[in-house]
Amino acid sequence: MSEQLKKLVQQVQEGAKYRFIHKDLVENIARNEITKGRSWKGTVKAVRNKLHQVGGAYQPLGIDYEQLTSELKSLPHDMQTPEAKRFFIQTMGLHASTRERLLILDQFFHETLAPLAPIHSVLDVACGLNPLALAWMPLSESVEITVCDIYTDQMEFLNAYFEHFHINGKATCCDLTQQIPSEKAQIGFVLKTIPCLEQIDKSIGSKIIQNLQCENLLVSFPSQSLTGKQKGMRQFYSEHFQTLLKDTNLKSTTFSFQNEQAFLIQK
After folding, report:
1. How is residue 101 annotated by DSSP?
2. Domain ranges in the chain?
3. pLDDT confidence of 203, banded at 50, 70, 90?
4. CB 129 within 8 A of CB 59
5. pTM, rounded to two decimals
6. 218: part of which helix (H) or strand (E)?
7. What is the pLDDT of residues 148-160, one digit of tens each?
8. 213 to 11, 135, 160, 257, 266: CA distances (angstroms)
9. Closest CA to 185 of 135, 141, 159, 146
10. What does the alpha-carbon distance between residue 177 and residue 129 come to, in Å, rounded to a whole number?
11. Burial 45-57 (b: 16+ CB within 10 A, else e)
12. For residues 52 and 251, what is the distance between their CA atoms, to the nearest angstrom?
């Protein structure tokens, strides 16, 4: 890494909203933006804007994962208890992506995963706080969970969550635009992920769908904006999804929910 790039990454991450973002992603975006001939201040702003589009917009107020980990330790070790589920719902409400799914949580995973139940292995990419929804999924007792996202503090919290509830799970940081995870699983979750990553790489959707080593993929798209506007998003993303499957032999089943459009792909 050049000194200039190193300085740019460091300055971007001095902002509180960007401190815990996976350094590889920051470096990847910075390397691209630094070549565009902007002023130094403009380049810093451009990198931060990209990071906001990819992740920051979904937790604009920030999330205190240290506090959540502390609260986690006081819970029973059975994730099906009312106390645990209450904590999961409250915590998922802090992240826009999972907050939008709370109204349909009972039916979302029951309907989409019913053909595959019981689930014995899960790979959740750009997971956010979706792993906290495991209590609503039709899982086998010995299920293996692998998840990844761009926030280091979020991944530490999820590892603490796995440990507390005796889940065979692992959370790590990843930059999907640079490397697609190679872990194999019965089901791969790509939930409302593709539109975010397309802010960096327009071809990332087809790369993820074709290269994830999963027997099945549950891919979803938002049907409304973060501000609640429809804007024809359901139709737009349904058509976009079909373009991602073009020239493949992949089959999919469609599930329409109040604010999310999901597709189950059999690979």
Report:
1. T
2. 3-54, 65-266
3. very high
4. no
5. 0.92
6. strand 214-222
7. 999 999 999 999 9
8. 36, 24, 26, 27, 12
9. 146
10. 20
11. ebbbebbebbbbe
12. 33
